[in-house]
Specification:
289 residues, alpha/beta, 11 helices, 57% helix, elongated
């Protein structure tokens, strides 16, 4: 099933949940609970309307943080009325999210279960805690599995549909393959690194993809750093093409071109780029042994 159909289905489910929460809020007697449930309904509706599934807005954004806080507020405010919502903690842990959100959700679950001893009685309180812990472990295992699958998929997925822009995790492996290919075919290959302000990085990435050949890959290493693997017949053609590419990009920040034969460490080149003044620096090739 294509991503667009999955996102439409999820958007519909979120809107249905928002409507149900709004109906629940309309029949809630206390003002505090009504406000909290209305906030939850608004969050669901806004999430559904703004939902986008692309790699520029990854699924690991802490979107579960607000419902976790709302759920904790409901259980702390009226534990007798909303005690059945305790089991929702397991569902909130099922989707991929940052580790600190997982830890915070687990702490909030413990903090909302602990005061229920007087309400449930000792035996039911202990049993509910054990069941909640088991369900949360299942939810956590599901979240970690989805996170691993997502990271594996991102290594093979383009960041922008239709453009050869790939995640930076692919670059180290592609460098090894491209170096071997250039040596085997006798062509000149080089790594181009670009630094741009965060607000200009995506536009520069699009221009970089448009100005490179279809068989050449571009990469987004972080929020301000781009990379491209360029292939030419010889160093002279590479120099001409590099100069034309730099003028066409109209990049305002620093750039760094390193022939793959002279590339010792990607991390060292990235550190050098971070301390380089604006302009394109070309690193000379090392002589053959």
């Amino acid at each position: 099933m294509q991503t667009k159909y999955k996102s439409v289905l999820l958007r519909g489910n979120l809107l249905i949940a928002a409507v149900l929460m709004a109906l629940l809020a309309a029949y809630t007697p206390t003002l505090t609970d009504t406000l909290l449930i209305w906030l939850a309904a608004a969050w669901l509706a806004i999430t559904a309307l703004l939902l986008t599934f692309d790699h520029r807005r990854p699924a690991t954004l802490p979107w579960q943080l607000l419902p976790s806080l709302l759920l904790a507020a409901l259980l702390w405010g009226e534990p007798g009325r909303h005690v059945t919502w305790l089991w929702a903690w397991a569902m909130l842990l099922m989707l991929p999210q940052p580790r600190w959100v997982l830890m915070l959700g687990s702490l909030l679950a413990l903090a909302t279960w602990w005061p229920l001893r007087d309400l449930l009685g000792l035996e039911q309180w202990v049993l509910s805690g054990l069941l909640l812990a088991a369900l949360m472990l299942l939810g956590l295992s599901r979240a970690l599995d989805l996170r691993a699958r997502r990271q594996s998929a991102l290594r093979r997925a383009r960041l922008v549909p239709g453009l050869p822009l790939w995640p930076g995790e692919r670059l180290p492996d592609d460098l090894i393959l491209e170096r071997k290919r250039s040596q085997r075919e006798g062509v000149h290959a080089e790594l181009l690194l670009l630094h741009a302000p965060r607000h200009r990085c995506w536009r520069l990435a699009q221009r970089l993809c448009w100005l490179t050949h279809g068989f050449e890959h571009c990469y987004r290493l972080d929020a301000t750093t781009l990379a491209a693997l360029l292939t030419s017949r010889d160093p002279d053609q590479a120099a001409e093409r590099r100069a034309l590419l730099w003028r066409s990009l109209e990049a305002r920040g620093p750039g760094r071109a390193v022939p793959l034969r002279a590339l010792a460490s990607l991390e060292e080149e990235r550190r050098a780029l971070a301390h380089q003044p604006p302009g394109l620096a070309v690193i000379g090739e090392t002589p053959d042994a």
